[in-house]
């Protein structure tokens, strides 16, 4: 591997093999102050992503009450983000500062495989969660229990590994920096290499995005339809639901306390994760495809800056997820406060009113002021 540096332009012959030698091409470097700033931000992201996702995993591991199917999936998503933070982001931060890859060509391929491996795993977990929400809310089928969730998690790890491993053995061109701050998909005219690159980005983004978008549109339509139906037939619906539950013997069934926002809030949390996934990964997917198919884009002087920005955005998801958990999920937020040392707890914890958890599989009832399905 030959890497050449200058004060303004970086020249790199990135690949040592005879089949994918590249001609020397210059590109515009980021200023040293900006490179250091980006690297410092990435180090902060590594710390926050590692600690935040580690707390999520510890909560699920240490608290048996938290080991529901959905929480096991969220813990797996957190673990994949931890691995991405620890095994990929530090090398990218070093390369951003030095504008050189110091870890060897073969580890470059391994790091690229690990990057796609953990990303594929995180995406597959989001896909499983979205399908589960679709089955519960639209199809009214609650089939995912903790045992089945463990089986699907194991299968997702195996499938993700099988899909990412070919990048190690040369099924696609993986460029060694300094053209980019990380080992990325490079330009190639080989149909086989292009086919695998397309397969990779389609599996990472386009298929999950399409399935999740369809699931959430159906869920939104179902929620809207139920809201209209409930609003128009509130009284009769309440009586029907109470009859189904066999509660007609109660003197005042309308005094029952029901968490009517359970389904909607859980769905909204997953929807926010989906939006975060789309925002963080759409630019990276587009840039990856352009890198493989567009000679002019890959050899342009701005490619280094563009690839740095999209890589930073893709890593931002590792920080984004645990923040959403603590913001949206009360039990995670309470558990996070328990893990914090007492010296950091500025505000006292106000005891809230105890409320029985409403499971997604139960039939919802309504009182004279609220209703749900």
From TrEMBL:
How does the entry describe its membrane topology? Multi-pass membrane protein
Q: Name the UniProt key words of this record, in alphabetical order.
A: Cell membrane, G-protein coupled receptor, Glycoprotein, Membrane, Receptor, Transducer, Transmembrane, Transmembrane helix
* Main location (coarse class): membrane
What sequence ranges are listed for the domain G-protein coupled receptors family 1 profile?
52-325
Q: Which PROSITE patterns match?
A: G_PROTEIN_RECEP_F1_2
Asked whether the UniProt record includes Glycoprotein among its keywords, one would answer: yes
- Transmembrane annotation, as ranges: 36-61, 73-97, 103-130, 151-174, 194-219, 266-284, 304-327
GO molecular function terms listed in the Swiss-Prot or TrEMBL record? G protein-coupled receptor activity
The source's domain of life comes to: Eukaryota
- Provide one Gene Ontology cellular component: plasma membrane
Q: Which SUPFAM superfamilies match?
A: Family A G protein-coupled receptor-like
Q: Which SMART domains match?
A: 7TM_GPCR_Srsx
Signal peptide range equals none
* Subcellular location(s) of the protein: Cell membrane
Q: Has keyword NADP?
A: no
Q: What is this protein called?
A: G protein-coupled receptor 45
Source species of the chain: Erpetoichthys calabaricus
